[in-house]
Design brief:
alpha/beta, Arginase, Chain A, 8-stranded parallel beta sheet, two-stranded antiparallel ribbon, globular, binds manganese (II) ion
């Protein structure tokens, strides 16, 4: 019997390098126990992986085949539902393994809380990095819903271990805010993409941990998030900013969080997968070029 439609393997972009050869290790974390408004980010990793398999491996803008970057996808991490803190510890242990193996972790959330365990791990291996944070929300509460490890507390926890720079913010918690480390959306309107990118480059260390909450994008293009906020970035703007910034920085870890898929509506899932494709391409195609020279 002939199979009419055969899809690539169930991995990010359908890539199947051997683990030993992997440069990037994708850790899908289907966890949204701390989401405050609309739950559903637990389905994010599955829908991103599904959408990523229908993307063309070759991209004409980057002139790369994504399979050449050696992206290995692990099994989904089983949530620890005992507490957000227990879950952060579980994520930290998994990311420790990836970093011990000298690979770059890429976490697919899940809600933003998954960042806390990942950054805690990265901080044990790397010094002097900046947590570069794209988000509509400042996520700066010290405590939320009875936990210090909620998605709303990410920046408060990150600040205890690394510097951060937040971009696209348009919904804040006034208390405890560090205005120097924020590029507000209201101010970005007055700036060119180049000025935005230069501001980010100037305010971050050479090494960055990239955290993208998909709600930094405008809900018209990215309606599939638990806490949408009007007046977000377009896909094109975010892509251009990432291109300018990531090509100048060393990316030591990444997460892409808060995709909360709407059943039957696949366009935002494909957008999410393609944004990850570009982010990886911008961050790592310089390494590929160096290899081939
Ligand atoms: Mn957010």
């Amino acid at each position: 019997m002939k199979i009419l439609h055969s899809l690539p393997p169930y991995t990010l972009f359908g890539s199947t390098p051997k683990y030993d050869e992997a440069k990037i290790v994708v850790l899908p974390i289907p966890y949204d126990s701390t989401t405050s408004y609309k739950a559903g980010a637990r389905d994010g990793p599955h829908e991103i992986i599904s959408a990523s398999r229908v993307l063309e491996p070759y991209n004409e803008e980057l002139d790369i085949d994504i399979n050449d970057i050696n992206i290995y996808t692990t099994d989904e991490l089983e949530p620890d539902v005992n507490s957000p803190k227990a879950m952060a510890n579980r994520i930290e242990k998994e990311v420790d393994i990836i970093l011990q193996d000298k690979k770059i972790p890429l976490i697919l959330g899940g809600d933003h809380a998954v960042s806390i365990g990942a950054v805690t791990s990265v901080a044990k291996f790397e010094k002097d990095f900046t947590y570069l944070h794209f988000d509509a929300h400042s996520d700066s509460r010290n405590e939320y819903s009875g936990s210090n490890y909620s998605h709303a507390c990410v920046i408060a926890r990150v600040n205890e271990i690394a510097g951060h720079y937040s971009v696209g913010i348009r919904s804040i918690q006034k208390e405890g805010m560090d205005y120097k480390s924020i590029l507000f959306r209201k101010d970005m309107h007055e700036m060119s993409i180049q000025e935005i990118s230069e501001t980010i480059i100037k305010n971050t260390n050479d090494k960055i941990y990239l955290s993208v909450d998909f709600d930094v994008l405008d809900p018209s293009q990215m309606p599939s998030t638990g806490t949408p906020e009007p007046d977000g970035l377009s896909f094109y703007e975010l892509k251009k900013i990432l291109k300018a910034v990531l090509s100048k920085k060393q990316v030591i870890g990444m997460d892409f969080v808060e995709l909360s898929p709407i059943p039957g509506f696949i366009a935002p899932n494909v957008l999410a997968a393609k944004l990850i494709y570009f982010a990886i391409g911008y961050a790592f195609n310089k390494d590929l070029q160096a290899q081939s020279e």
